[in-house]
Amino acid sequence: MSKLNYAAIAFAVAFSGAAFAQSADPRGACKTDYDKFCAGLAPGGGILACLNGKRDQLSATCKAALDSRKKK
């Protein structure tokens, strides 16, 4: 296998793990949605309730992170 193939595989593995880690953690995956819909709330102030209340407007990444949190 060529060096280019190894580099492509390494790149794919590195970034697929980062994407999974972000989607599994609502704090990272939902930051944009939080900023858009729930910015006035402080931690412990109902952020998850706010995000779940806006569920139909959330990004797919945020929805997946919230779903994975419920499964734990």
From TrEMBL:
Signal sequence annotation: 1-21
This protein's name: Cysteine rich repeat-containing protein
Keywords tagged on the record: Signal
